[in-house]
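Q: Focus on the shape:
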Amino acid sequence: MKTYQEVERDDAMDEFAHEAFFVQVRREEFRAEVLEKLGRLEAKMDMLAGGTQPGRMKMAEDRIRALEQNDIRRGVMDRIVSATIAFVVSAAIALHDHLGFR
């Protein structure tokens, strides 16, 4: 038959074993959760930056670069058209007597 101290020691060991099991299970759950989140993060990074194929960021950068080039080209064309119109108007004003304009 067990003494009172032996029974208390067994109860304490059972609590410790239960706690250790609980901590071990929580650690495994935590590890699985962290690995799952890390996998999702890696997939999102691959989607944004692109792995072997160009990702969204690369495609967005290419579109922005094309828009900037078109904007510069359009700005130059606007200036040329404005300068041509200004030249024609100035020439018409300066030569209105010779061209027969009133």
About this structure: The helical segments are 4-49, 56-94, 96-99. The longest helix spans residues 4-49. The chain has two domains: 1-49, 56-102. The mean pLDDT is 78.
